[in-house]
Write a structure and sequence with these properties.
Layout (H helix, E strand, L loop, with lengths): L1 H5 L14 H16 L11 H4 L8
Length: 59
């Protein structure tokens, strides 16, 4: 997990619907923000309109 947090490369999370991909991405993003002071520049989530009030609400 720490490797994902300190890395500045793109991360692709792939899986079937309902497998908590957006929650995982949001958790990694929050860890990056709080641990290494990374800024959120953009969110690429194909279902952002469905996930923005749940998985992305803390960003």
């Amino acid at each position: 997990m720490w490797y994902l947090v300190e890395s500045f490369t793109a991360i692709i999370i792939h899986g079937k619907a309902g497998s908590y991909k957006s929650y995982t991405a949001a958790a990694i993003t929050l860890l990056k923000h709080y641990l290494i002071d990374a800024k959120v520049e953009s969110i690429c989530d194909i279902d952002f309109d469905q996930n923005k009030n749940d998985s992305w609400k803390f960003l």
